[in-house]
Amino acid sequence: MKVVFLLLPGLHLLDLAGPAQVFSTAADFGYAYELAYVGEQAQVPSAQGVRLGAETTWPELTAEDLVFVPGCGLPELAAGPRPARATLDLLAAHHAAGGTVASVCSGADVLGQAGLLDHRRCTTHHDLRDELARRYPLARVERDVLYVLDARVVTSAGIASGIDLALHLVATRHGPAAAAKVARDMVVYARRTGEASQTSAMLRHRWHLRDAVHRAQDLIDSGFCEPLPLEDLAAASGVSARTLTRQFVESTGLTPLRYQQTLRIERAEHLMSHGATAQAAAHAVGFTDARMLRRLRSRKDDAPVASVPKSDITMLDVSGAGGPRRSR
């Protein structure tokens, strides 16, 4: 699979480097990826001042291949790059031939110029969403999501979300174990889903270096709608239940249960913002009814640990709808 990055003047280095590292690391593990970098000029200036080399002739592409458009560092889409018509036609032709096109951040504007956003769901950086919607009124711009896939047009939010998107594409092609292997090698613990908020708790509570807590968070992140007994989380993390809870609180400010509930609430609110009833959203995230969801939403999501009873801090079972209960 060829992954071709279109380098345009003023591109953000991380918009490019994050996804490129994902596919490069996957290739190091034996997955068949071949990276290429193309542009309209042989030397492309980045937003950070580094000049990047690019091929000015595109490789021959098939329907299996992916074209990636990194975003640029300008505060408005109107001031961004305007590729030549021939470049936009290449993007459109690749998609029309069955290929996939993807963008990070303001790269979505280039896909819009190529006519690829019309009548499709898409997203971009939260500071640019309104402008993107104005520029392409036939597009359906999704708010507060990390990435969107719609008929082989894949768009992602700002900067680091390109890593999440690239990991998702690896997982789709080779399975979640392959993506997890790549992510761990890159020391990327927050493997967020496309519908995760751009300010999700999955990101807010990852600023620590405790490996056991990261392993527990990985399990909660991937299965927060299901009952997750504390003992099982602890066993998978290689520590005792009491040690995991203590380290979890010290690292995130939350108990494992409160962390799981926060993810459930965020997901339920996303579903309700897209038309689901409170009852349907509650069921979708693992609550038996909407009462528990309403009760938890009335609390402050990131309540300090001091407000959590001492018995809950050390003896929580991260169970389903019923809230905290003492472990045996």
From TrEMBL:
SUPFAM superfamilies membership: Class I glutamine amidotransferase-like (SSF52317), Homeodomain-like (SSF46689)
InterPro entries linked to this entry: Class_I_gatase-like, DJ-1/PfpI, Homeodomain-like_sf, HTH_AraC, INH-QAR
Keywords for this protein: Transcription, Transcription regulation
Transcription recorded as keyword: yes
Stretches of the chain forming a coiled coil according to its record: none
Domain HTH araC/xylS-type: start-end pairs: 214-310
One example GO MF annotation: sequence-specific DNA binding
Protein name (record): DJ-1/PfpI family protein
